[in-house]
Amino acid sequence: MTAKVSESDPDLDLDLAVELVNTVYALAAPPDRLTNTGAYQHILREARQDALADELTPADLPALRELRDSIAPLFAATDLTSASTLLNPLLSDAALVPQLATTDDGAHWVLSTGLHGLAALRARLLGALAAHLVRHGTARLGVCQAAPCTCAFVDRSRARTRRYCCDQCNDRAAATAYRRRRT
Ligand SMILES: [Zn+2]
């Protein structure tokens, strides 16, 4: 059975967390794209999460920014103790009620049952981050090493050697290293 994109999917939700954090990109002008909810609604629609995008309203902007700023440090956490210290208060504040959802493939946790809009988004992103940390620890979550960029990424490379958020940052870092070698 293929997963329906409209349903909560931990990999997709983790990517949505990354995309939320990366609405701040140091090299963009201006660096912060999240000056209205439309910027993130666009990201949700690109990920075929139209229902969730439709439920966000302009009044959600402060909470959306707060969610972004609260999950961003998780990508810099280097051990599970510090990651848990960051994530547990967020899970606690969200007062999530896990429900077991069953499919033909088995069962999985759903944290957003009965929630809508920002509350559903918060539940899905926090749930995806928690599930990822349980499964993989902090090794695959990272922050771009090409200063001044501080974008987040999930390292899905086989060798777990990813250091940059995107090809542009990779190229920029390579060019900087090349210049350094020549001087
Ligand atoms: Zn970067």
TrEMBL record:
PANTHER family hit by this protein: BLL6575 PROTEIN
Pfam family, one: zf-CGNR
Designated name of the protein: CGNR zinc finger domain-containing protein
Organism expressing this protein natively: Streptacidiphilus cavernicola
Domain Zinc finger CGNR: start-end pairs: 140-182
Superkingdom of the organism of origin: Bacteria
